[in-house]
User: What shape does this take?
Amino acid sequence: MGDCWSRVIVEKPFGTDLATAKHLNKVVNNTFAEEDTYRIDHYLGKETAQNIMVLRFANAIFEPLWNNKYIEQVQITCAEHLGMEGGRGGYYDKAGALRDMVQNHLLQLLSLVAMEPPTDLSADGVRDEKVKVLRSLRQLDTPELIKENVVRAQYTAGHVDAKQVVGYREEDRVDPESMTEAYVALRVHIDTWRWSGVPFYVRMGKRLPKKATEISVHFKAPPNVLFNAIPGAAAGGNVLVIRIQPDEGISLRMVSKLPGTTLRMEPVKMDFHYATSFGKGSPEAYERLLLDAMAGDATLFARRDEVEEAWRFIDHIEKAWHESEKAPEMADFVAGSWGPKAADDLLEQDGNSWRRL
Assistant: This one.
């Protein structure tokens, strides 16, 4: 009997706002202890997501540079080419992109990128640092701040993969007057010593040109004093790209001289693919997570305070969208494009632009 155990795995969505998440936590904890409760997020089961800590903390060429002195911006993009197929509109029109993806998957990825080194690799050692990031998010707690830093949009009729598709409000089981976002872009700031002044841009959208999730870390460009007399020499800073799906891997953009007698520079890419580098396939995300739950390893699962802090940040935006008289407008974009102009303008305010996937 001493070897017996009982654990519960809870799939997202874990609540629909902070109040319901707290209630659900209370209900679950009335039966299961926190150490026996596994809130599953399949993004954290992907090899590249797990590799973020190794990439940062086991490589001396990255960790000393992983701060506001050397990093200009960080972008986290989740692009989906699908719409509301399979009757999904009934669920999605009640959730929306912010609650369906940003509150869980994308804020989890952000916390892995931004966390401090944990004291050890225990589940709570890692999760303690992740929750500190979520607590350090600058709250967008007024309609004015939300209008300045958040864009929401719906897609209109267009073409995806050379096929004609309808707009969001014409989708099956979607309210024809829906005010639910199928696209969201945010500018997020983390108020810590490491990240002060570095914007994190997060976007998620349906009916974009392709399916892909990636994190791109944009390093500051070096002084251009050596090459400023060379036409077209300013090639920009280095960019480290962490591809979460579908082609899991890591690439690094650097600047190199083109072969020839004249000094011409072009960006080149060093690329690492999980599928080809190790000679064996990665386990499916759920496969890895279910095995961890059975082994009692909660490192890749969200803890109660992580979930609640993420909802605390999201709730301000949701309330401003649906309860405030100063709610920002719903933008639109053509299905098959990369999103609304307002999302491009959000980055242009800082002199930046979205990385094309």
Summary: The radius of gyration is 21 Å. Residues 89-114 form the longest helix (26 residues). The chain has one domain: 43-283+307-348. The longest strand covers residues 71-79.
